[in-house]
Amino acid sequence: MVDLKSTIRDVQDFPKKGIVFKDITTLINDGEAFREVIDEFYKRCKGKEIDAVVSIESRGFIFGAALAYKLGAAVIPVRKKGKLPHETFNASYELEYGTDTLEVHRDAFKAGEKVLIVDDLLATGGTIKAVIDLVKKLKGEIVEIFFLIELEFLKGRDKLKGYPVFSLIKYDKE
Ligand code: AMP
Q1: Distance of alpha carbon 96 from alpha carbon 110, whole angstroms
Q2: Domain containing 90 — which CATH number?
Q3: Fewer CB within 10 Å: C terminus or N terminus of the chain?
């Protein structure tokens, strides 16, 4: 077993002063660590008949696509506004200054499909709330929400009441 936490690099003051950025490039640079992440996610969701794995631009794609491959499930990208070429649904969320918008294709999956959502990190929960809105617009059934990392002290999980949330690596302080 790899000590996954030890493969994550803290970068101080990125992208701006006061933020400790959790850099996962050092985790995916270690093939054994990357495989362990996907295997752990897989163990939790195999047998749950997942139809589609929804993941979020851009670091979410790395983990979501690998897990979907293992499950034999569809890969559904949620992207920043203006990147998807066909008709989309969109959902906005608050940033520290202003808002941002995420989009998904309107025909990404069929109503009633069982969906797993995967992202790299849960901070305040704003991003994932917008993704949940998108999955609801498509009438997907959210089976579980997976994060590689959870910053527990930001209490993002409180925004996700009623949804099963699983995170592999937790930080209870900065
Ligand atoms: P939030 O909407 O606050 O939950 O932020 C989640 C998104 O922002 C994730 O998709 C992360 O990629 C990114 N993010 C937020 N805080 C950090 C951090 N400290 N280190 C790395 N990524 C972060």
Answers
A1: 34
A2: 3.40.50.2020
A3: N
Give domain status of residue 4, yes or no. no
pLDDT at 174 over 90: no
| Res 150: pLDDT | 98
Answer whether 126 contacts ligand 1 (Cβ < 6 A). Answer: yes
For ligand 1, atom 9, the nearest C-alpha belongs to 121
Give the domain range for residue 159: 47-171
pLDDT tens by residue, 17-28:
999 999 999 999
Alpha-carbon span 91 to 130, nearest angstrom:
5
Contacts of 72 (CB under 8 A, 6+ apart): none
Number of domains in the chain: 1
Atom nearest to 123 CA in ligand 1? 4
Residue 51 lies in a domain: yes
**Residue 14 belongs to a domain:** no
Under 8 Å between Cβ of 64 and 90 = no
pLDDT, position 63: 98
Instruction: Look at residue 39 and tell me if it is in a domain.
Output: no
For residue 22, the CA-to-ligand 1 centroid distance in Å is 8
Q: What residue owns the CA closest to ligand 1's atom 10?
A: 121
In this structure, are strands 52-56 and 114-122 parallel, antiparallel, or unpaired?
Answer: parallel
> Which pTM does this prediction carry?
0.97
